[in-house]
Amino acid sequence: MTIKIQIPTPMRQHADGKTTVEVAGATVQAALADLSAKYPAIAERVFKDGKVRQFINVYLNNEDIRYLDSLATPVKDGDELAIIPAVAGG
Fold it and tell me: Between residues 9 and 88, which one has the greater pLDDT?
């Protein structure tokens, strides 16, 4: 099963410059774990104490996983995850 994860610009330096990475997994958490195994520096920026950092948004096929089953949300072949850092300013 192949899941594509879109890597945001600020994190691409930790993914060999790739904009998209293919991973495997049956859930969002498993897919992100596979990404973390391939690119450990990304894990440090996405997770804190095993949870997605507050300022990081994760979307599955354009739906925020917080409104689904969070990290337990099932994924299927061809799904796309997007990691989107929150932007703030004034």
Answer: 9
Spatial separation of the C-alpha atoms in residues 77 and 1, rounded to whole Å: 5
CA distance 75 to 53: 21
* 90 belongs to a structural domain: no
Q: Is 72 strand, coil or helix?
A: helix
Q: Are 11 and 45 a contacting pair, CB within 8 Å?
A: yes
Instruction: Name the domain count of the chain.
Output: 1
Place of tokens 């391939």: 38
Which CATH number does the domain housing residue 74 bear? 3.10.20.30
Give the pLDDT score at 72: 96
Whether 86 shows a pLDDT value over 90: the answer reads no
